[in-house]
Amino acid sequence: MTAEVLKLRPKDLARCAELEQQLFPGDDPWSQDAFAAELAQGHYYVGAYEDELLVGYAGLAVLARPPRAEVEVHTIGVDPAHQGRGIGTALLRALLVRADAYAATTFLEVRTDNEPAIALYRAHGFDVVGVRKRYYQPSGADAFTMRRPARIAEDAG
């Protein structure tokens, strides 16, 4: 992977929305305003950059702080032209470093038919804990809810 993972820049929110249109055309892709709202709420977002071009993004929300910390992965997206090169892995790892700093249990939803993403999440300690029927709209696709147990940062390596 040659992309550099950094804190998401507000100037790249239009690019995030553009990628959403490519990645999630059958559902309800996030708008630039939706990404701006996520940042305004203080959620943690990172971007993967190649030569200043945003090629991926990921976001994490803190739902509860210690002693029973919980976080939720809100989104991970990688430009289709850059998939299969480890960018999604790098983005997920950046989010998990943040989760581990809180010693937080991490949750996410993923389409039940998204086998590459499910494999990525399993490889990073997530297990399926439930199914949300018709979670994605308007397609009506189902989602798995996945959970990764809390880890302390020193044990995360």
Automatic annotation (TrEMBL):
Residues 3-151 form the N-acetyltransferase domain. PROSITE patterns: GNAT. It holds the Pfam family Acetyltransf_1. Gene3D superfamilies: 3.40.630.30. Keywords: Acyltransferase, Ribonucleoprotein, Ribosomal protein, Transferase. Its EC number is 2.3.1.266. One of its GO terms (molecular function) is protein-N-terminal-alanine acetyltransferase activity. The keyword Ribosomal protein applies. GO terms for cellular component: ribosome. NCBIfam families: rimI. This is Ribosomal protein S18-alanine N-acetyltransferase. It comes from Saccharopolyspora cebuensis.
